[in-house]
Structure prediction request, 316 residues.
Amino acid sequence: MKPFLPVLAGLLIAAAAQAQGPAGTYPDRPVTVLNPYSAGGQNDAITRALAANLQERFKQPFVVVSREGASGVVAMTALSRAAPDGLTLAYSVLTPLTIQPHLVPGLALGPASFAPVCGLTENILGIVVRADSPIRSVDDLLRRSEPAKVLNYASGGVNSAPSLGVEALARLHQLALTHVPLRGDSGALQELLGERVDFAAVVTASATPFVKSGRLRLLTVMSARRDLNFPAVPTLRELGQPVEQVAYAGLFAPRQTPGPILDALERACQDAARSEGLKQVAATLQTAVRYQSRSEFTRAVQAQFELQGRALKAQK
Prediction:
């Protein structure tokens, strides 16, 4: 997660000013919006921008509360146990719903534990090398990874979304790779810059300063679409590799939350995604705004849950 930037304070105010819509019967009291990750991080910043929009629209406080722990599991477990009245929500990436349930025995979380409201943003994932690396393309990486010369790569953690994308590529081509998991993208990038690994799999926003300064090179992105900051860099699918790893984030409510409440929140999310204020916050964080309706997001969450289950089973 990227540290919260002071400039975002002004942008959050702008995000609220862009929100529109009359107050309705929901909510009739303050709403808690859980941030499953550290205060001041990227998820926190987007959560606060969204909360500012919702607060202006519904004329009630939307209070962001950070409940970090266990890769998002702590907050999302709390949400799953909350009353289905729309007064407790969470803004989260999909990890605690689509990856952690396959890894933690007895974890009572999954797509069926929540009512997805909307998808709002996407972290674009990519593969980066040092600027002086002999690996100049994905084809180079595939050719150089062989039993006689195992390539080392770093990521932001075991079973992080970027590492799962690389592991899918490795299974497809039977690559000889050694994974060096670190705590976050910053650690993975430092390993790469320190010449202790051959490449890194990270959120592209984390690597952007190094790519733009010429220290690193972005080989490809693993997401469904190109990174707007690097429009010339192709996706893996565009390079003929049937590998795609997405990292969506969105708003969730407890399961059995009434339809009218979900409808009102979905409309508010759509307006927030269109607002200049939230777009500016996302741009500052170099996060892509990717609105998905409630039905689209629900299908995406279920599809990722099934995909990650198959991928993790294949790694065993």
Summary: Residues 8-122+247-315 form a domain with the D-Maltodextrin-Binding Protein; domain 2 fold (CATH 3.40.190.150). The chain has two domains: 8-122+247-315, 125-239. Residues 13-24 have pLDDT under 50 and may be disordered.
